Amino acid sequence: MSTQTPLAPAPAGANAGPVRTQRRLPRFAATGLYLAGVVVGALLSALTGFSITLTVIYGAILGTLAVYLVSRSVEGRRKSTDRLVTTVVTSAFVLAMVPLVSLIWTVLENGLPRLDSTFFNSSMLGVVGEGGGAYHAILGTVIITALTTVISVPIGLLTAIYLVEYGTGRLKKAITFFVDVMTGIPSIVAGLFAYALFALFFGGGVRLGIMGAVALSVLMIPVVVRSAEEVLKLVPNELREAAYALGVPKWRTILKIVIPTSIAGLGTGITLAVARVIGETAPLLVTVGILTGTNLDPFDGRMATLPVYAFYQLTQPGVPAEFGIERAWTAALVLIMLVMALNVVARLISRLFAPKTGR
Amino acid sequence: MAKRIDVSDLDIYYGNFLAVQGVNVSIEPRSITALIGPSGCGKSTFLRSINRMHEVIPGARVEGKVVIDGQDLYGADVDPVDVRRQIGMVFQRPNPFPTMSIYDNVVAGVRLNSTKMRKSELDDLVERSLKGANLWNEVKDRLNRPGSGLSGGQQQRLCIARAIAVEPEVLLMDEPCSALDPISTLAIEDLMTELKERFTIVIVTHNMQQAARVSTATGFFNLSGVGQPGHLVEFNPTEKIFSNPEEKATEDYISGRFG
After folding, report:
1. Residue B162, phi then psi, degrees to nearest 5
2. Position A333 in a domain
3. Which residues between 193 and 212 in chain A have a beta carbon less than 8 angstroms from any beta carbon of chain B?
């Protein structure tokens, strides 16, 4: 392979100047070599019956080797090590992207056919086979997520403010510890907690939208606390002292200086926390259940939500099964789009509210 | 406006660590008092204890008396927030509020203390304070731009304008020029000389020429050794300190033999 690669011209002369010059590979040589390695890898795997996995494994090894050896013989040890590490890092990145791209591709491929107006305009009321939509589930997800946010943000934000601005000693340590523990709670446990809590008052078998919001809050509060705490810690102490020195009371300093300074980060953190809980399935399965019709009252009975909807469309697709499975894919697609939209919103928030430098 | 400050037997602690011991000093109204001394000797700590900023740090406390016009600032019934309204402070690094415009920065003290003022009064206050801080001509056309867009020296003068906008009795300055170039330093020194007509100014500085140039009285802080508390070695009129100090340590420090 190395014979096919044109070598860079030799250095202009050893006496060119005080800085040592070195032969270099041409600009796209490394990429070309790597691709050549991948092609050879594909051929090798074709010998034993072609498979993608083998191609990738052979290709990565051969490509890396080719780049390293050629670079070593032409450019010397330091540069070849640099190329080796670059190649490994890039390969790892591409490898990490594979599942993501594959996931989005599959969801798009399977979900797009039913991404029509019927899907957004009709519920599953009276639908057994073709047609039907997730109107009720989308609204249910929006309502329950909004309720979750309304419950979690004040609690989470105030906890973070306590931890950063007021907390000292044991209580602070204890809260930090329990927030960490809460971060690790499996989501089904949060769901069972909410179920058990409401079962105390309403008896067993109760299903309410607000139960789902409580369950999701258990998952969302620690995320909000953690992100808000980090952001509030970033506010320079000098700003707090500047405000104190003007005779501003502490609570007003927090309200008028600390929070406005960190509002971009707080908004981003909250949006990402919402994105984190919007796709939770297990807790909603046990607390909210599923409904074929539309119920917009979270204090009265079962509601439909997108993740649970997708779950039921997949496990109980009706007759014939293909329509239900199609709806499940589309529901997954809508969910991904919601999360992506939230991420875009988070970016916009951090850009719009960031303190302006004026330069 | 200006008030006299009497400090007696002041011990300042960080937790159990005694940082400054036994300060007795009396600061005259309408004057500039400079505090000099090597790093870590407690000048800034002492300065921060005058307006009760010291206790903002967890575990920090103060024993002794700071009396302003007969009132003990560390009395049981004194609200530290009120103390800080009377005694303003300018910090070493300029710290304008990044979310606020130049205008809002100047009126921040008034607004955040929820004093209701009409727009015209606020406009007057901004102009008066910025003129007082020698910044008006440079920023009058861009009062609505963010304060963080100014140069370092301008930001520091903005902080001074913000501090004098609340009309304090005393102005404490903690190395206000250490991050600035000579021209900005000169601007701020001129400003201090103007401001001493209205305020009692206490300034911490590492620059002995600056102390000699602007102050009427100078205090020299020192510490006997590492881990030992700092203490006030000598407090005298600036002329005396720089020409004929009473203490050997002061002379050594000023003449550059140590520190």
Report:
1. -65, -40
2. yes
3. none
